[in-house]
Amino acid sequence: RPRDWSSDVCSSDLGAIKGNKVEFGFEADAGGQKFSMWFAGELDGADAMSGAIDFAGMGSGTFTGRRRKP
Fold first, then answer.
1. With contact defined as beta carbons under 8 Å apart, do 38 and 25 qualify?
2. Beta carbons of 38 and 29 less than 8 angstroms apart
3. For residue 20, which of 41, 47, 38 has the smallest C-alpha distance?
4. Is the pLDDT score of 40 beyond 90?
5. pLDDT at residue 8 above 60?
6. Quick one: 12 exposed, middle or buried, by C-beta within 10 A (0-12, 13-18, 19+)?
7. b/e string for 28-49 if b means 16 or more Cβ within 10 A?
8. With 60 as the cut, is the pLDDT of residue 7 above it?
9. CA-CA distance, 31 to 18, in Å (whole number)?
10. Segment 2-9 long-range contacts (CB within 8 Å, at least 24 positions apart)
């Protein structure tokens, strides 16, 4: 997968959007410990999304997000 952005601490995987399905992830370094997170979910209109997070196979969870209005 192509890299979307990176810094000294973190890099993002561009992921994919197909219809209302979205996937993206990132790798980070926290105090010398590298870890990755992968998000897979659905868009809810133009301002919200929700789905599941995989923490490098060590655990999982869910997320919800809403665009912040200026």
1. yes
2. no
3. 41
4. yes
5. no
6. middle
7. eeeeeeeeebbbbbebeeeeeb
8. no
9. 35
10. none
